[in-house]
Structures are given as structure tokens and as C-alpha cells.
């Protein structure tokens, strides 16, 4: 007997604030100006997990599944679906009458083309759905076949950073033929791309033919209303300029606020600070494990052994309000994924032992290249701390500083870096962190068969509760192999919101549908 799923029972009802503001006069011709600190290196959602891309793309594209406010995967472009008795084949029926921004009707051909490219080029597809095949059954029906049952299939399809965006088949075919990133951004979402000037701005405008789901809005799911006509992401890389724009009301939303000035902003007139109540990011040091000094695990372990986590995070984030010290890959609220098993390997601050391990590693005086950007102030600070710690244990290093798009580009080649500080946005399941699985081929190039095997064993477990011991084992293996060093996690960043803006929410990034701007 097949398992049948209905969207009505999967979506939890949640009412967003916009519904409480309808009595006010909403300006549907309004423009939303956003001061945003980081520039996207690419807008192709398949090729990056970077926030600067996903924060824009989630408004242009839709996916087969997305997540609700409880981080559960729920249907978006799927109307209904079934799962076979052997748990290997999903059959998805697509919503009827959905059109892309170019006017073309969404069909199974578009879904199959999009998903097969995503499987082939994205870190999520390569790592978590290897061997999966999408096939067309009819114009509105597609199947997904797994080589083995997996607990996390729908979570991966609903990934919010390496977005499995559905695009017209013609665009996918052109990208496959040219072997280049997608540059024509055409989706089915509530906003469409009007103009993008690299490094300067990105302009979205309302898609008036958008067909919304009818379920109550929850997280990234359910009803979406484009109550604002135009959205401008203004790329302002200087912190003081963003701060000034928040204080003067030049922008309706301001992101990446300088943490030293949060208290000042909290008392500013005509402005409020929105604090997301969930989310945040893992704070890590990422190693190049393919070549160079840190290809030697003993040198990675020596660097980890030397770290005083509290001092490192304080140097990076200024105030304990903005970070939590924690060795776990999972967040505490993720009951099935949280583990303290790696704690004995974390925050040891043993400099003498670290120096001895450097010698035991056979380190021969090579220069460690730390790659960084000033566009992420906290991560730049962490890079400086890394250089200081390496000096303390007798390892030479240099800091290569670029703009963020150049960092993303150079990081693709293992010859260009040995170490960098990175944040990874909280994900629904640990498999979505791209640095773990060797099959993801994420910069740093993990290569640990034991970690890969445990990730697969978790997917094939009968339930997440049954996999708890495997989650502990995964954390221990990660601390022994050190694809990254987990320092802790950020608390979600506050966002400056102008008082004439209602309905703004955040779930691993801004949610700009269902937002409204009141008449002056």
C-alpha cells in the first residue's frame, strides 16, 4: 500500500503579522529599499550556498518543497505526492496552472530538467541524493527514484541555501550546453528580476500573474502576497554607511548591522530592531584538506588544540550576546541532531601540546594562506585571530584579503587557500552542511570514508531517534578528522526595520512577501 500525503495536513497554520495590518492603508505601489552588506558572487542558486544569493533567489524561484516555521519540509510546487512501499520512489503531482515569469506554463519537463541539473552540480544533490533519478510520467507528474530509502529526501529538496529552484527547461538546456552558470533568472515566485548591476544593486519587481498557495503562511510556505511593487537590494559594503542609512531612514530594511552599534540603534526614532527567534549559523574555521600544510590532519589538530574559543569568538563578534560557544554540529533546539559527544576535542587551549603536535606533524615552515574579506567583519576578525594563533604555535601564515565574490571564486581552487573563517546557516539536517560529505566536493575537499558511511547510515535508519548514536559518532569523527573547527553558533542577526514597514519576518534569511508599507 502506498503512503499518500495531502498538503492540507502537512501545512501548519500560522498567521503572519501582515494579516493584522490590513485595516491600515497599504501602498501597493511602494518601493522597499534594502541596505545589504554582501554582494553575490553568482545568482545561480545551484552553484552556491551563500546568503547573498539565497536571500534574493527565494523571492524569484520556487521549489518542489520548502520549509514551514517549524523547519518541516512541506509542498510548494507539488500539489500531492505518494511514497512507494519500499520507500524508494516518490511520485509528485504538480500544481496546475503555474506560470513562469516569461509566461510559459510549468510542466513536468521543466521539473525534470531543473532537478537533474541540480542533482549534478549542487553540493546538496551530489552529497545527499547520489544516484537519484527524476523522470516525467505525464505533463503534471514526475517521479523521484532513490537507490536506497532515505530519511532526509524531502529536507534536501527543501534546502534553503542550495536552492533546488525550478526553471524553464530552455534555460537549463542552455546552461548544460554552455557549461556556464545560469544568468537568465526566470522562476515562478512572487517577484521577478528587473535588473542586476554587479556590485551595486539588484532590483526585483512584482510578478502580477503569480499564483499563490492558499494555505496560511508559515515560514517559507503557504500564502504569498506581493504587497510591495519593487524591492531594491542596495549593496553597501561599508558598515558605517549602512548604519547611517538605518539612522536616517534612507532604507526600509538594513542588514548586517555593526554589532558595536546595536544599542544605539535600539533607541533610534522611527526604527525598530527585528530579532529572529530561531536560526543562526555555525561559526567555523574551514581547512583545505586536499593540499598544502593542512592536508596533514596533525597540523589541523594542532591548530584546534591551541584555540581559546571564548577569546576567539569575543574577538570576532565583540559581545557574548551575538554568539554561543558550542561544539555541536546541530543546534540545541534540533533535538534529533544535537550532540555533545565532540566536547572533549573542543576548546582545549593547550599551546605547549599544540607546539609539540606541530613538530610531530613534520611541518617544514610552509606558509599557510588565510583567505578573507572585510565585507564580513566578524569573519575577517576571526581570520586575524587565526593568524595570531598560528604564530603562537610556530606556523607561518599570510592573510590574503579580497572582495567577497573574489573569495568565492578563488576558494574553488585548492591551490589558492589553506584556511578561512566561514559561517554556515542552520540547516534542517546535518547532511546539508556541505563540508561533511566528500561527494559534495565543497571547497576544502573533505575525504573521509568513515564520515561518508555514517551520513549514509543515518539516512537509512528507520527513524531519527534510532539514529541518535550515529549522530554522536558523526560528531566525534568530525572532531577527529576536522573538515572544519566548530567554534559555536551565532545568535540570529537583528535587522533594522523602518516603522512604516509591517509584516517582515525572517527564516534563515529575509521573507519579503507578505510585507507591506503603510501610506505616509
Could you outline the blueprint of secondary structure elements for this entry?
Layout (H helix, E strand, L loop, with lengths): L2 E4 H4 L20 E6 L14 H10 L4 E3 L5 E3 L2 E6 L5 E6 L13 H14 L1 H6 L4 E6 L2 E5 L7 H5 L11 H10 L12 E7 L3 E6 L23 E6 L3 H10 L4 E2 L7 H4 L5 E4 L6 E7 L9 H10 L2 H9 L5 E3 L25 H10 L7 E5 L4 H16 L4 E5 L2 H7 L8 E7 L23 H12 L7 H14 L2 E7 L4 E4 L2 E2 L2 E2 L3 E2 L4 E2 L3
Parallel strand pairs: 2-11, 2-12, 16-17
Antiparallel strand pairs: 1-5, 3-4, 5-6, 6-8, 7-8, 9-10, 10-11, 12-20, 13-20, 14-18, 14-19, 15-19, 21-24, 22-23
Helix pairs in contact: 3-6, 9-11, 10-12, 14-15
Please provide a written account of the structure.
- The protein is α+β, with helices and mostly antiparallel strands and about 525 residues long.
- Helix 3 runs parallel beside helix 6, helix 9 runs antiparallel to helix 11 and helix 10 runs antiparallel to helix 12.
- Strand 22 and strand 23 form a beta hairpin.
- Helix content is about 25%, strand content about 20%.
- The longest helix is centred in the last third of the chain and has 16 residues.
